[in-house]
Amino acid sequence: MRFEVSSVPEAARAVLANNIIYLQALELGVANYTALAKRIKPDIEKLIGSKVNLNTIVVAIKRFADTLDEKPDSKPLTTKAKMSLTGSIIDVSFKKENDQDLAAILDKFFEQENRYHLFQTDNHFNLLAEDAEDTRKIVTNALEKFEGKVLEGLSKVSLSLNSEEQSPYYLLSLISSMLYNHRIPVHSAFFTPNELVLILSNKDAAKAYDLIRMKIE
Prior knowledge:
This protein is an alpha+beta fold. The chain folds into 2 domains: 62 residues; 139 residues, VC0802-like. Strands 2-3-1-4-6-5 form a 6-stranded antiparallel beta sheet, covered by helices on one side. Strand 5 and strand 6 form a beta hairpin. Helix 3 crosses helix 4. The longest helix is centred in the N-terminal third of the chain and has 16 residues. The chain is elongated, with a radius of gyration of 23 Å.
């Protein structure tokens, strides 16, 4: 893509706005402006058609980053995303061999007061639930009849969204970028227009929860 630019700020905006990695780093506030200026300096000089002082590029980056902070989607998250952190989560995975018999087992979960999440693919059911005594009894009974496995040591971070007022896609992009930048692995993630559920190891969940909470508040 070719841009018609006549100033360093315009050139910087053109380069930064068309690189998702640069944008995400600026939005998350983790970009080193000087290092970024050195990286995009050749591109800016190519657009301008002349040599450009590095400090001028740094100033242009800072101004562009300030405009990102003013985006409508960046601040209203405070009142439109409710968070919760739940520990002692287990992930129970079953192979789909006899759906009718397995459904009878899973029906018992519908009677439980504790919240759970059930997801299925072509070959597996995955059940995420709190590691309560009643849950363990049902899981143990199911594992005696069906091939499956239980993964422990997990926690759940949930965000409830107001989809009518807040676009969920910006939040999803923001969180995925944040977790990537902080090297926090995700065991599972599930997304609907009204809820975002992250399943992480116990050792990473609290850190992820705090990072997300600080960002949206």
